[in-house]
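Case study.
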Amino acid sequence: MSRTASGTADITRRASDFLFGLDGLIALIAGALVVLAWDWRVTVLLALWLGAWLVNNGLSRLGGRWRMRLVPVIFGLTILALWEMTVTMFAVPSVILPGPLAIAARFASSLDVLWADFVQTFVKGALSGYAMGCGAAVLTAIAVDRSAFLQRGLLPVGNFVAALPVVGIAPILVMWFGFDWQSKAAVVVVMVFFPVLVNTVAGLQASDRMQRDLMATYSASYAQALFKLRLPAAMPFIFNGLKIATTLAMIGAIVAEFFGSPTQGMGFRISTEVGRLGLDMVWAEIAVAAIAGSAFYGVVAVIERRVTFWHPSQRR
Amino acid sequence: MRSFGPVLVVLGVILAIWYAAAVLMNAQWERDQASRAGAVIGWAEILPATLRQERPVLPAPHQVAAEFWALTWGEEVSGRRGIVRSGSLSNRGLVLHAWVTLSATMLGFVIGAGFGILLAVGIVHNRAMDASVMPWAIASQTIPIVAIAPMIIVVLNSIGVSGLVPKAIIAAYLSFFPVVVGMVKGLRSPDAMQLDLLRTYNATALQGLWKLRLPAAMPFLFASLKVGVAASFVGTIVAELPLGGAGLGTRLLAGSYYGQTIQIWATLVMASLLAAAMVAVVGGIQARVLTRMGMR
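After joint prediction, the assembly is written out as follows.
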């Protein structure tokens, strides 16, 4: 009797390990493959997916730095291949979903338009607004830091504003600053200001008592303590805010263009091309946005690594 | 409560700056009107006039408050199309638009949070999934989703999906990422000692998930749900921009087309109140759940 009980427990354990382990996933996909095999196209897609999955699984079991780097690349390429094959085999009309190859062709053939849009939205709108907003936020945080009263008052307000849909202010700022890049930069300034402010204020309090006392025994002036201890200690927090702000800056600059823009810009191009059903152009523009957004984030992350090399999270 | 006084002072300062800015920014229009009429006016006439313009550059706070009240309570109770007279919410008032946006946000948030939790469970239990999905999940967030929003909506419309769902998809996309990151951290938060204990009990992966990892992840889950609900609200508003119909985003766009500044600000007040209320609701649930689980 007890043997059967332990036997059942053993089976349930194996079943759940099976489901959560990888073999279970493969079995599920294989099952789906059989069930959906009424259409050979679905079978081909599933087989490709399964093959890539097996390769990735093998690579990640073997481990190693280069193999682990290869895994996401294979995953991404698989998605692209599946996308292209779906579009071709099911003859999806290009006004609904163009394939990656068509998008790449469009990208290559309209580089000049894409570059003009990129300069208008990213360089003029997002970057300038990002610089002004983050600079203003850090300076404000340093000013606020001198008064405990202001900190207690501003921090809750800042946290509250950071949760609000700040994008909504875009129509107002477009009215105030006109259709060109100035209004986009203004939206970006408002969007990045509070996250950076809250993070910087938190960062300036990060140095501990002992370190500040050491500065006091050196009889360091306020400025010396600020530049030699508290600002460097705040850098991990500041960069956290700066990294969040990169995404917000892109969002702000693009959304602001929906409320009015000159006849170029990424947001403008997307909304007009959607109207003209030129979806390959829209996707090319999205690719530009993705590359610009990732590069922006990456650059800030690299600078962070240079500046905060001493922080435990940067150890490898 | 220690910060109650300072917060009041800061809010007071913001209000004062707002009034001052309203006077300064609206003054030019009053001067233009006066010079067109051939008169010269001093600050004594300009000052009160700037605070009651019909389409000010920057409406004064009391104008926004009055408009907000008129578009909610006033419109519904005494308006011709309000709920009292016609039996349905007025499409001129803010309540209907707020409800449309709120329901799309909720749907998207539930989808996004659910998908995020499932993905996190997969990532924690499967090394191949961790290595292949996580970098793309991070990269996907550097793509400004708003760039894709209008296209997703048009494409879904063309294949016959309309109404709440397209907006909810964008809201879900924005809310799933914070949940994935928070949950992966949370599910990995039990330390080696606790995991070893479960191993000595010969516990299955499912039991480990259900009895150790999920409870341990609760504080992380709620922290990321708060971020996620705010994000999905922004996503819904942005998604409504190209749509037309009802919703706070549409309302903002209409206001900007017709230069109805007071109405835009009243809509912004409504959006802020909704966002604050949703974060507060998640916070309330968090407090109750964590108290029941003995975590605080």
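Observations recorded in class. Chain A has a mean pLDDT of 81. Residues 2-91 of chain A form one domain. We will return to this complex in the next lecture.
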